[in-house]
Structures are given as structure tokens and as C-alpha cells.
Amino acid sequence: RGHGGARPPREVTRRFEPPDLPRQRRGVTPGMVGRYPDFDVLETAEHWDEVTRTVVLARVQEVPVRRFFDPREWETLSALCDHLSGQVGEEPKLSVLAFVDEKLFLGKRDGYRYFDLPDDGVTWKTVGRGIDEEAERAGGTTFDRLSTHEQDALCHRFDRGELYGGAWATLNVKRAFSIVMRDICEAYYSHPWAWNEIGFGGPAYPRGFARLGPGQREHWESPPEFELDPARDVDERGQG
């Protein structure tokens, strides 16, 4: 390898999404593609109550700064979050780790802890050490400097709990993966850019939703422009 400290070239790929997914025409989505290209949930912000509007808009306008993770952990875990949220090579992208970092720094937890895992913050830091140890064994580098293919292989082993020794000896690895994915999904899908991507109409209070039957949409909601079932598509392309 021997990159002399410089970040090596990375394959830029949109493996997780169909190549003909429409470009976003209104609003913002990760990578500026989506099934609802003319939908921007922020255009409905005037219908939210003031407290809700302040909270949601802050997720776009005030991305948290790093306070919990150290710089090395940040580089490694940012790459892990990008990979597990399907944002490799995407611009713009959601800074998922920024919101995870804030949650952990503020001491917010989910009200339970597995008996065979430490505190969530310790779990995250241990995962960072562990995947860097795996990257070191694989090629003398860190996780964020691995190729996309190598990151993919390592994430699959992490998901299956097939990582042993070193930092992993202190964790139930498969449960640690579930904690990481829980926090990633929470951060990703609480952001308006992700709502645009999936066509979510945003907070229901105080306006509420009236059309609740199958196939019904409120007047402000946009119909999908791309009908391919995402779960089946990912399975057929061997990326599940």
C-alpha cells in the first residue's frame, strides 16, 4: 500500500441504488437522487408548531461539531457510517456521525443496555478501534483508507459477528453491530434530507393527516416517480 500518509484513491460507486434513480429537482436528498424528485418536506415547515420547526430546521442548519470522538475515531467512524448508511461517494451526504457524537456527548441513551455490552459510548469507541485493527491486519492501514470493496467485506463480517480478538474480545460483536446500526438509522431518518428521499411528509402536528387509507396521499405529498421495490432490487443485485 504505502500511500505516504496521503488518502488513497477510492472507488466512487452508487452500488446501493439503481442507476436510473431520478435526480432530485426540489429540496435536498443524500446524493441528490430519490424516488420523490419534486418533494421537499421543508416547504411544509410553516404548518409545524414552533418548537417542532425549530428542532427540525436545526438538523439542517446547525450540524453538531465533534465533541465526543477524538480525531482518529472521527475519521474511522465517519467512513463506517457512510458505508452502513449507503452514502459512499455521495454528495451531499448526511453527517450521520455528527448526530451520533452529539447524542453520546450529551449522555442521551435509549433506556436499556445489553448485559454483555458496555455503555453505548464505550461500545462505539471500541468498534472504532476494532475495525481499525482489522484494517491494519488486512493491509497496514485504517478503515477509512480501505477500498470500498474491503470496507464492504469487513462490514459484512461485523454484521455476522465474525470479528475476534483485540478490541472485539470486550464486546458481543453482533450486538455491537445492532447498537451501531440503531444509532445510524436514528440519525439518518430523523433528518429532513432523508424524509425527502423516502417521501415522508414530516411532523403531523398540528395540521395532522386525514388520508390514511392504502394508496391515499395528502395534497402536499408527492407521488413516487420510481416504483422499483428497493428490497427486491438490492437482493437481486446481491447487495443485501
Q: Any overview of this molecule?
A:
- With 240 residues, this protein is mainly α.
- The protein is 42% helix and 0% strand.
- It contains 8 helices and no strands.
- The protein has helices at residues 50-61, 71-84, 96-105, 120-139, 148-160, 173-189, 192-198, 230-236.
- Helix 3 crosses helix 6 (173-189) and helix 4 packs across helix 6.
- Residues 1-14 have low confidence and may be disordered.
Low-confidence stretches: 1-14
Total number of helices: 8
Give a count of the beta strands, DSSP E runs of length 2 or more: 0
- Look at the helices and sheets and give the structural class: mainly alpha
The mean pLDDT is 88
Q: What share of the residues lie within helices?
A: 40-55%
Span between termini: 29 Å
Write down the secondary-structure element order: HHHHHHHH
Outline: globular
Q: What about the largest sheet?
A: none
Radius of gyration: 19 Å
- Tell me the β content: under 5%
Task: Pick out its properties.
single chain, 240 residues, mainly alpha, disordered N terminus
Question: How would you concisely characterize the structure shown here?
Answer:
Helix content is 42%, strand content 0%. It has 240 residues and is mostly helical.
List the helices and strands and how they pair.
Elements: H1 50-61, H2 71-84, H3 96-105, H4 120-139, H5 148-160, H6 173-189, H7 192-198, H8 230-236
